[in-house]
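Running log. JK asked me to keep both predictions on one page so they can be read side by side. First protein, sequence followed by its tokens:
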Amino acid sequence: MIPIFVIVVLAPFDWGVFQFLGSTIEVTQLVGAVLFALASFTDWLDGKIARDRGLVTNFGKFADPLADKMLVMTALIILVGQDLAPSWVVSIIVCRELAVTGLRLLLVEQGGTVLAADWPGKIKTATQMVAIILLLVDNLPFEGIGLPVASIMLYICLFFTIYSGVDYFVKNSAVFRGPK
């Protein structure tokens, strides 16, 4: 779904605009937000089904967060390019995502342990998804009343991104001491 999302959001032609409560947004941004929301929902749903049916695998515990990171990083980088998100915030988020992915690889390499997402990481993912959707629709419907909900969500997302990253590294610091 990531390539389709990129093509739609970066479409080099005008699909028109959508107006809602005094705010105007490009249709490509709205469709991109719907695609991103759909990808996020189906990601949550397949994880829930796997857990409910006892189909959780080490591959899934590794690949699913990696797919989440690819989707989120792609969307955030596009938002920076469209001046809808500050590059310094996105840089911190991308660095954290890459660092935690590296940690996951080290854990697998040294002990075969797959680092599953815990609550701080799940909250981080949820706030990222909400922030990205609101940024994609340029803060619609809150723009009309002057409430910067998209920006607020992005900074909440940044907090949980940093917090969960530190949490993962503190809980798994033994990996840096080498194999036993």
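And the second, directly underneath as requested:
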Amino acid sequence: MNNYIAIGLAISAAITFGAFSVMARKAMHLGSALSASLISVVVGLPVMFALSLYFSDWGKLTWEAVLWFSLTGFLAPGLARPLVYLAIKYVGVGRAMPLITMTPFLSTMVAILWLRERPGPAIFGATALVVSGCFLIALKPERDRDWRRIFLLLPVAHSIVMAFASTSRRFSLLLFPDILIGIIIASLASLPALLVFLPFLPPEERWRIEPGGHKMMILTGLLNSLSFLVFFSAFQFGAVSIVVPIGYAAPLFALIFTRIWLRDEEILTWQKWVGAIALFLGVVLIAVNAP
């Protein structure tokens, strides 16, 4: 029964993350990645804290749980969120989101080593699909908007960070199974991590919000907070090898939403579509064969 709950939550997270990625692309025109990241973390905290006063028991919280929730928050959304904003800004939704779907494979590998999860051998077949999809997405077709291949490291770095964040998130919830308290601590711990990016950003990419941009950034932040809550909750009910692959079906929804909302801004070539489908099939293969 818990696996069905985890799968349902992960699918819901995939849809909302897909919509968020497209909204984030719009928000990039209205401010810097760091501004969007900080707003998206802070905007959901008051609601989470109010809910925790009713549904959670803060008196049972241990320092060990605080440490692990802080670590997962420092990694994601702390380090991971600016990386995804910058990836969307510099390589586009259609390329960044599918590349980010390397996370399920990396997360499963970390979970095998750390949590001793034992998914089926189909993961290795899924790996070939993931690698093929990444290769197709990295191709630079003619007439595509200008971008530098070095920026492909942004979504790749995001995947590595998220792999460790996902596994530590599952471990934290096994240690202290309170979703709301976990999210609040993780969100607070992410704020110092966001500031790590400051010295490496040009002035225009630090704190900057264009006139009228607050509303869009707040809406994007609320959607991301909802996605984070749903995805975080799924780890309480299912293993990393089940939750992460399904949650990272988001690229399919991102491409659909891109086709609807960013048709004039984002060129979706056949390589992107084939690459995204290959990655999606790899994700499904992992999810179906997960224990």
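Observation for JK regarding the second prediction: Residues 2-288 form one domain.
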